[in-house]
């Protein structure tokens, strides 16, 4: 047994899991650590029958859970948040081992789970409907929000636990039950998280099947996609995946919430505070080794400050500590696998063929272990070419210049994805234009803040090929409920809307 494997077994044990018996009874698959490529554990996928059984159990649990008062449902999520807090370090360490996040970012991801549980507990007393004035005397008009059903969650590798919690914490207070298909690259953190939910459910007396996990590759995901038992499918991953999943769920009139690829840009204007801009951009571009949906991939900089911005970014990229994510000084950990590195190399070659100049990084870094470690790349481009308009899930920041603000907006909005955007400026007019209806066409748009690191209080998600879904805060909870509009007649007479007369007597 390797050191990482032994550590993984100890961590799993802290969640009551036996590393020798993980998952279902289907095909075995190995979970590799991107830190050194070694095997952390072997997991068994769930068979189609097991997935069906899980969905049936979840549907039965829903029948009970939907009638549990929402503030009582909130107690489950409150306890879940507490348990996650009690296991914060262990869960974060598992995130680091399984997907290679540096300690601070892994802890941040688990903190995000705790934060969204807090938000959901508050929501459990605030699932407000509206009352509307009726046009008819002696009538009352109201809308109420009811639980929706079983929510299927399909998640990507790069936020192996937070994405589930954004969905699950909110769905559970809304009265739904949840079946989660995590990334096949990150089943261990999923098992650990759902073990905490199972414990919370047992402690507060909630049905045991309110939250279940099914493991496996896309075939298991497809079972959730096609199941009429899944009322809402919340799918996070590549635009390719969303393109397949969206129409399939729509064809059975199911609901879908898509959180797909991003290709995020920042505009740096002549009046920008360059210290602020450069520091924010380095985190946004290089954090999580460029493997966030909100990663900064395009810099659109005014030509008068382009050289200064590029010099500073190049120096920062060249000095970023790349290495083992468990080392305290590391800021850039490994890519998830060698295929990601190959995609990065191919994108860089295409950029260079387009006339791009690599100002810093792009090379493999030898950290003395297996794993795919790279230095984040900064590439100055002559224009915004096709490679810039694709999401390459690796740390590459392309730079193009602009002279006129409208040109900057046009370059910004030329991407087919629409997740997150930022502008660095001290000119309020420019800031307001960036946020206006004809400004950045993304779901998230920031001023003097980079593209990544959103708070859970806002609704998270993006437009265009990012899929249009919204999760987490604000009124995103409505996606997890069904709206019922009620008209109550207390007049004792028949009065039809729009003044229609229809009386047979
Ligand atoms: P991926 O699309 O390869 O896989 C995501 C999940 O979808 C996995 O669980 C996978 O098994 C499943 N899946 C794949 N094809 C499927 C199909 N046809 N039917 C059902 N399930 C299917 O993505 P990934 O490589 O794990 O993650 C990286 C991608 O996710 C990037 O594009 C990134 O931008 C995106 N992402 C988006 C957000 C967001 O909130 N917008 C958040 C995180 C990641």
Defining traits:
Aldehyde Dehydrogenase, Chain A, domain 2; Aldehyde Dehydrogenase, Chain A, domain 1; binds nicotinamide-adenine-dinucleotide; 505 residues; seven-stranded mixed beta sheet
Characterize the overall form.
globular
Proportion in β-strands: 15-25%
For the largest beta-sheet, the strand count, sense and barrel status come to: 7 strands, mixed
Task: Kindly report the spatial arrangement of strands forming the biggest sheet.
Answer: 12-13-14-11-10-16-17
Low-confidence stretches: none
Class per helix and strand makeup? alpha/beta
Structure, described:
This protein has 505 residues and is α/β, with parallel strands linked by helices. It folds into two domains: 49-260 and 467-484, 3-Layer(aba) Sandwich (Aldehyde Dehydrogenase, Chain A, domain 1); 264-459, Aldehyde Dehydrogenase, Chain A, domain 2 (3-Layer(aba) Sandwich), CATH 3.40.309. The protein is 39% helix and 20% strand. The chain contains 14 helices and 21 strands. It has helices at 3-14, 48-65, 70-86, 88-99, 103-123, 162-173, 187-204, 218-226, 239-251, 274-286, 303-319, 338-353, 405-413, 428-435; strands spanning 28-32, 39-44, 131-132, 139-147, 150-154, 177-181, 211-213, 230-236, 255-259, 264-268, 296-302, 357-360, 377-380, 396-402, 417-418, 420-424, 444-447, 459-460, 463-464, 471-472, 481-489. It has a seven-stranded mixed sheet, with helices on both faces. A five-stranded parallel sheet has the order 7-6-5-8-9, with helices on both faces. Helix 7 links the parallel strand 6 (177-181) and strand 7 (211-213). Helix 3 crosses helix 7 and helix 10 (274-286) crosses helix 11 (303-319). The longest helix is centred in the N-terminal third of the chain and has 21 residues, at 103-123. The model has no long low-confidence stretch (mean pLDDT 97). Nicotinamide-adenine-dinucleotide (NAD) binds at residues 154-159, 181, 183-184, 217-218, 221-222, 225, 236-238, 241, 244-245, 259-262, 293, 391, 393, 419, 466.
């Amino acid at each position: 047994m390797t050191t990482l494997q032994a550590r993984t077994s100890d961590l799993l044990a802290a969640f009551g899991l036996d590393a020798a018996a993980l998952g279902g009874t289907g095909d075995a698959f190995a979970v590799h650590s991107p830190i050194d490529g070694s095997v952390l554990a072997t997991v068994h996928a769930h068979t189609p029958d097991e997935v069906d059984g899980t969905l049936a159990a979840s549907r039965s649990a829903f029948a009970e859970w939907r009638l549990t008062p929402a503030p009582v449902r909130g107690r489950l999520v409150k306890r879940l948040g507490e348990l996650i807090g009690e296991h914060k370090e262990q869960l974060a360490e598992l995130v680091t081992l399984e997907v290679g996040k540096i300690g601070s970012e892994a802890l941040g991801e688990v903190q995000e789970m705790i934060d969204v549980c807090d938000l959901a507990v508050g929501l459990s007393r605030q699932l407000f409907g509206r009352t509307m004035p009726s046009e008819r005397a002696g009538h009352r008009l109201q809308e109420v929000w009811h639980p929706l059903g079983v929510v299927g969650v399909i998640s990507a590798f790069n936020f192996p636990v937070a994405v589930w919690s954004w969905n699950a914490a909110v769905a559970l207070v809304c009265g739904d039950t949840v079946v989660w298909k995590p990334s096949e690259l990150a089943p261990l953190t999923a098992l650990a998280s759902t073990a905490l939910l199972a414990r919370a459910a047992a402690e507060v007396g909630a049905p045991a099947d309110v939250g279940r996990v099914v493991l496996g590759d896309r075939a298991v995901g497809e079972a959730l996609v096609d199941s009429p038992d899944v009322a809402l499918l919340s799918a996070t991953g590549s635009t390719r995946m969303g393109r397949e999943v969206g129409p399939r769920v729509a064809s059975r009139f199911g609901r879908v919430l898509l959180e797909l690829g991003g290709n995020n840009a920042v505009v740096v204007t002549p009046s920008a505070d360059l210290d602020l801009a450069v520091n924010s951009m380095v985190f946004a571009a290089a954090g999580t080794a460029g493997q966030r949906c909100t990663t900064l991939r395009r810099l659109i900089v005014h030509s008068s400050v382009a050289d200064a911005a590029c010099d500073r970014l190049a120096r920062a990229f060249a000095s970023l500590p790349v290495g083992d994510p468990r080392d305290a000084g590391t800021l850039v950990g490994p890519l998830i696998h060698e295929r990601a590195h190959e995609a990065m190399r191919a994108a860089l070659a295409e950029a260079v063929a387009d006339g791009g100049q690599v100002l810093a990084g792009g090379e493999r870094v030898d950290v003395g272990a297996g794993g795919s470690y790279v230095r984040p790349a900064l590439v100055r481009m002559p224009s915004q070419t096709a490679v810039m308009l694709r999401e390459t899930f690796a740390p590459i920041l392309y730079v193009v210049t602009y002279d006129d603000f409208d040109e900057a907006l046009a370059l910004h909005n030329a991407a087919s994805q629409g997740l997150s955007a930022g502008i660095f400026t001290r000119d309020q007019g420019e800031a307001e234009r960036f946020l206006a209806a004809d400004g950045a066409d993304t779901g998230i748009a920031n001023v003097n803040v980079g593209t990544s690191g959103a708070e859970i209080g806002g609704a998270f998600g993006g437009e265009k090929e990012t899929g249009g879904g919204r999760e987490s805060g604000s009124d995103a909870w409505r996606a997890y409920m069904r709206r019922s509009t009620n008209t109550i007649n207390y007049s004792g007479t028949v009065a039809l809307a729009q003044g229609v007369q229809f009386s047979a007597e």
